[in-house]
Amino acid sequence: MLIISEQEARALVSVEDAIAAVEQCFAAMAAQAARNYPVVREGVGYQDAVFGVKAGCDASAPILGLKAGGYWPHNMGKGLSNHQSSTLLFDADTGRACALVSANYLTGVRTGAASAIATKHLSRPDSSVLGIIGAGAQSQYQLRATLAVRAIRRVHAWNRSAENLTAFGRIVEQLGLEFVPESGAQAVAAHADILITVTPSQKALVEKSWVRPGTHINAMGADTRGKQELDPALVATAALFVDETAQAISIGECQHAYDAGLITDRSFRGSIGAVIEGLCDGRRTADEITLFDGTGVALQDLAVADLAVRAAAKRGLGSSVDY
User: Fold this and answer.
1) Which of 113, 114, 141, 295 is most exposed by smallest CB count within 10 Å?
2) Does pTM surpass 0.85?
3) Which residues are marked as active site?
């Protein structure tokens, strides 16, 4: 078995590589060559933690495996990231476990990649102003991935923590971009061509009336029952795209509009994979508000873990152990 550490994973997978790998896995999902299995996500009952398991198989690759981990809210006080996860890959031909990959960085970069892929295919090509609501650890992945697909010149952002917002602003300015810290989510939405929400919120942060025509929204925070970042009325009036419909209506941003009867299974224009494959329209007009509900699927995690394994084999990295 090959074991890849957190430090090695960071060195092996770039943002650009992750975007290419995740885009390919979304296309495979749309072509029905890859499938995610039902997600297990539960409160642990200890340390206020939430633990989950996501698994799937891309038969076109082939890649088979699972990612296990979750959210430990008290980790920061221990000098650790609150998000902790690991990916286990199996040989699709034999079923034997073949690689264990640290997935903290890879989860961040694949989430940024998914958002960037939606931005690439759904936002207006001339989009130059990025709005980010939430300036935690994931925000810089979102920023760097967006820069890989759009020529952003200015970033507006808001976060409940002024300290986090200031730290994020330093990253933005180090990348040569103009940074505008805002006092609330409404001001961010008012300026954004591309709006990304990436928070653990359990109530709407963005109202329908705040969003300008032509905006593209990536709702990336909701991945658990009860989480919410957007006004359900906004969700109901946008052109809706998902990574996977079943997750969007059960644990994603769309769960609230769906439960309220504002949208149905037929309200979705399609998956982002279907847009990539040309199986459905993406943005139809310059004034249309497009929304990608990114819940995070197993195949994203497996794609970047497999990328790390293949890169490690070429570069002689990772630790090989008998298993």
Assistant:
1) 141
2) yes
3) 67
